[in-house]
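ok so I'm stuck.
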Amino acid sequence: MDVAEKLGQLENLYRENRLSHVYLLETNDLQKATTDVIKLIKKINCEFTYKDTCQKCNVCNLINNNSLPSLIVIEPDGQNIKKEQVIDLKKRFSFKPIYTPNNVYIIKNADKLNGSSANTMLKFIEEPGDNIIGFLITTNLNNVISTIRSRCEILSLMYTENTEEIAENIKKVASNYLQLIELEKVDKIMYNKNVLNDYSERSDIEQIFQEILNLYIEAYEGKTTLAFLSNLAPLALRKRISLTAKFLEDLNNNANIELLMDKFIIELSDDYAENI
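replied:
not stuck anymore, here's the structure
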């Protein structure tokens, strides 16, 4: 049974009022699984006959704008999901849902629940209250605390790997990331968190920064089609190539990814680039 069929089963269970109050989803693609769960939430709440391009439905529009009060998505704050995030979830869901029959929460990287946040989450799962549905998503089921695993309906959402599609996504992420950090003058470090939210594995970050290195080299050789890179002087490009190569070397030495990316941003700043 493929992913679409499994999600279709969940939709049918919802229609029959037989959906469990919490599911633990193991996947090999965190972002796709999250997107598909959000699409499921749209389908079961859409005010019309659901289409991917729904623009009429108030619920779908609110979800698209991340402003539906009855849908909360939690992801790691730094290296872990913190206890305060779970407490805030419980507080917000102590009220009846607005616009939808149920309050729904999604926890990305559920294996990142630490000791205190996992205990708080466990109590919430055991005593969820009425009209609450939860989806915990992880790429490593064995790293989810056993007491939480045992209280969830476990479902596998494994996607068929499309090498060309993955490579194209990596190129797009690398290009967008570079454009932001090269053109924005303030708050550049925030873009690291955006990348890490979707690409938390070391191998993914390595691929992204290898593509960044390739983009800088292409610009240095005069082969780039990216205007924001073609405007950089050869000296600035050589320094960027050196910094990116050093990043990849440190990454392979198991340095902390988040700190390493923040260091990269700082060292790539104009002031630094002029003085190294």
